Amino acid sequence: MENPCIICVAITGSLPTKANNPAVPITVAEQVDSTQEAFEAGATIFHAHVRNDDETPSADPEKFARLKEGLEKHCPGMVIQFSTGGRSGAGKTRGGMLSLAPDMASLSVGSNNFPTRVYENPPELVDWLASEMLEYGIKPEVEAFDLSHVLKAAEMHKKGQIKDTPYVQFVMGVKNAMPADREVFDFYIKTVKRLFGEDTPWCAAGIGAQQVVLNEWAISSGGHARTGLEDNVRLDRDRLAPSNAALVRRAAELCEKYKRPVATWQQAREILGVPLRTA
Predict the structure, then answer these.
(1) pLDDT for 78-137, tens place per residue?
(2) Residue whose C-alpha is closest to residue 23's, from 207, 240, 209, 238
(3) In whole angstroms, what is the distance from residue 161 CA to residue 184 CA?
(4) Is the distance from CB of 228 to CB of 47 less than 8 angstroms?
């Protein structure tokens, strides 16, 4: 039976700059162009951050609005996912763009260490972000940097704070957080299936050199994969990635290796339970 693999592309993030890789898209126009190329290469979820002109992270709803408009025009059907991550702002500013009603939004349900700081996700903010997603019909993608985050998502689902079947993404390879450990990865999968059901879709993301490792683990294990310049700016030790699309194509090659078709946007929406919004 076919098991299509959804490829999510995280094109910009909050940290990489053009000094790290000239292909990192910063302006809204660059982001739309980069995403369109990635969409054509097989990505069907777009994970969105926006930046200021000086490349610093932003949570400006106006920038998110222009980005969403451009993507709906040039990447019709693609699942648009806004980031509510903590590098772009503090407190409720992190969710100030949710009223734009994207298809999905990232939701970090607990705190953890990052390389030089604590990634703070206090319970009251997590509850508020989840409530905003419910109000605007947005499907959360639970970003699990720790096993406890999967358990917290299950608690929130039971309480009705997360509607329908949760979609959990395992994030591995962040310094001071969860490393890329295969036994832990396999236990994540086991835990998601135990808590939410055998057929629950899940995703994995690896940071830096671990990106391709997690892509292969996820694709070969029946999950979905995230790639893109937010998480990794290189093809290998000696070569910068020339584009987000190049990283998407690498993930698509792994899908072919493991005999999994790359999901179309229609299949991605069906798997995730995210219908196409109508005006």
Answers:
(1) 999 999 986 766 789 999 999 999 999 999 999 999 999 999 999 999 999 999 999 999
(2) 240
(3) 26
(4) yes
Domain at 7-272: CATH code: 3.20.20.70
Predicted confidence (pLDDT) per residue in 5-52, tens digit: 999 999 999 999 999 999 999 999 999 999 999 999 999 999 999 999
CA–CA dist 48, 254 (Å, integer) = 24
- Residue 90 is encoded by which pair of tokens? 């503090």
Average pLDDT value for residue range 166-170 = 97
Domain boundaries, the chain: 7-272
Two tokens at 145?
């940097």
Quick check: pTM over 0.90?
Answer: yes
Q: How far is residue 28's CA from residue 218's CA, in Å, rounded to a whole number?
A: 30
